[in-house]
Design brief:
196 residues, mainly alpha
Amino acid sequence: MQTWIMELIDSYGYFAIAALIAVENIFPPIPSEVILTFGGFLTTYTYMTPVQVILWSTVGSLIGAVVLYFLGWKLPPERIGKMLRFSTEEVAGAQQWFLRRGQVSVLLCRCVPIMRSLISVPAGMTRMNMVKFFILTTVGSAIWNTALILLGAAAGESWTMIVEYLGVYSWVVAVGLSVGIAVIMMVVVRKKFKKS
């Protein structure tokens, strides 16, 4: 997949970066780390500039986030729960949590692998103010994109090392999220058990 991504960016430049990042937001297994660090590396020896790569990648992030936002807005919570393999209670709990901490979550989660895509769904489900969502998504995405693009440019031909380190970071985050979700589910089940 990495070779295919590199070939697309080599051939179509900024447009490919925007399109790939938009798709990456909707289908998280496509690695933004590869797209952004390679894009940063290209700024060191091609016509591409860091500012333009940051701009186009942020546009792509916003497009992908908006698609997931409207998915959360339009689909019934039960259906979203089934798609993500969550129970009705877990979906309701996630909605309540998001209503309390949603704005900060949208901003911060844009810099966390996996969550940077998924956070758009509860934003849509809870009907978060669209303008606020756009602003927070744009700012959070720009921070993440800028960091990876500048790292790729600084690393030069060694940009793949950045991808490897970020792969470890993504794995640690995924394990941490899994453990956190498991703990939350145990707490919820225990509370229900005590009540009954």
